[in-house]
């Protein structure tokens, strides 16, 4: 399904940005996943002499194979779950509105949107060593709508995006003022 | 003494595989239905499915020489009687 169909884009509306968290913020999950993959290998190498008799046993050998297989499949499944949750957290900016899609867990998702003309204040924040090095941070939006505060988290180049949002909001205010 | 054939463990494993398959499908459909099936997410999906297929391939390759009719002892009264036997202290 395309973004246009998902958001039911109006005929005068155009998607300007699809924002996701900076890829570097997913890096810790990759490191943990790789460590989890190597744990059984390390355990096997460390205790190979103890495993020798177990591997010969016609009962424990298949059980060990099944446990190892289930372990690796679980690791893959959890990594994929974290990736999907990471990737489905997104913010879509059109020339008319901002849509905040948050995937909280596998079966929990919230979608909120604000019209750009309702945005009152936009600020960007870059805190910390890695955000400064890789140029990512948060954008905070104060709105006059039913949801008073929007936070776009860990996006790349927050300063430039703040300027774009301010510009789009100002154009949308002009459009709504002229209606 | 309580024993079960070893293939019961295999059935439990196959049931677990079905659960993993369902969850992988749910994740993939989330990506598809939210318009998030891009090059990046597609590549990660391919890698995950390839690794899962490799894991299954090696698992079933190791399974080929196993006699699944072997009895697996879950409980044996001798474990207790031997433990409580004074000669074992």
Structure description:
In chain A, β6 and β7 (149-156) form a beta hairpin. Chain A is 50% helix and 28% strand. Chain A has a 4-stranded antiparallel sheet with strand order 1-2-3-4. A 3-stranded antiparallel sheet of chain A has the order 5-6-7. The two termini of chain A are 33 Å apart. Chain A is built from 6 helices and 7 strands. Chain A is an alpha+beta fold and 179 residues long. Chain B is built from 3 helices and 2 strands; from the N terminus they run βααβα. Chain B has one domain (2-67).
Ranges of chain A where pLDDT stays below 50 over 5 or more residues in a row are: none
Helix content of chain A: 40-55%
The largest pleated sheet of chain A is described as: 4 strands, antiparallel
In order across it, which strands form the biggest sheet of chain A?
Answer: 1-2-3-4
SS field, number of helical segments of chain A: 6
Query: Structural class per helix/strand content of chain B?
Result: mainly alpha
Task: Summarize this structure as a short list of keywords or feature phrases.
heterodimer, A: 179 residues, alpha+beta, 4-stranded antiparallel β-sheet, 3-stranded antiparallel β-sheet, 50% helix, 28% strand, elongated, B: 89 residues, mainly alpha, two-stranded antiparallel sheet, 3 helices, 2 strands, 10% strand
């Amino acid at each position: 399904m395309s973004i246009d169909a998902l958001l039911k884009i109006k005929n005068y509306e155009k998607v300007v940005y699809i924002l996701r968290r900076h890829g570097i913020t997913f890096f810790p999950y990759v490191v943990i996943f790789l460590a989890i993959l190597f744990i059984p290998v390390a355990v096997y190498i460390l205790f190979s002499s103890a495993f020798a008799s177990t591997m010969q046993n016609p009962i424990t050998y298949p059980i060990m194979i099944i446990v190892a297989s289930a372990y690796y499949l679980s690791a893959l499944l959890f990594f994929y779950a974290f990736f999907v949750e990471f990737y489905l957290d997104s913010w879509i900016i059109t020339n008319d509105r901002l849509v905040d899609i948050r995937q909280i867990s596998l079966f929990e998702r919230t979608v909120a949107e604000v019209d750009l003309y309702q945005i009152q204040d936009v600020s960007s924040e870059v805190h910390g060593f890695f955000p400064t090095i890789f140029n990512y941070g948060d954008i905070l939006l104060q709105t006059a709508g039913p949801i008073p505060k929007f936070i776009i988290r860990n996006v790349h180049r927050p300063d430039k995006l703040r300027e774009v949002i301010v510009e789009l909001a100002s154009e949308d205010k002009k459009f709504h003022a002229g209606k | 003494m309580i024993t079960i054939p070893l293939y019961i463990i295999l059935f439990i494993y196959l049931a677990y595989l079905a659960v993993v398959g369902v969850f992988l499908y749910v994740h993939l459909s989330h990506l598809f239905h939210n318009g998030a099936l891009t090059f990046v997410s597609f590549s990660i999906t391919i890698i995950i499915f390839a690794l899962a297929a490799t894991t299954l391939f090696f698992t079933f390759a190791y399974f080929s020489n196993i006699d699944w009719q072997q009895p697996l002892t879950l409980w044996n009264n001798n474990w207790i009687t031997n433990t409580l036997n004074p000669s074992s202290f």
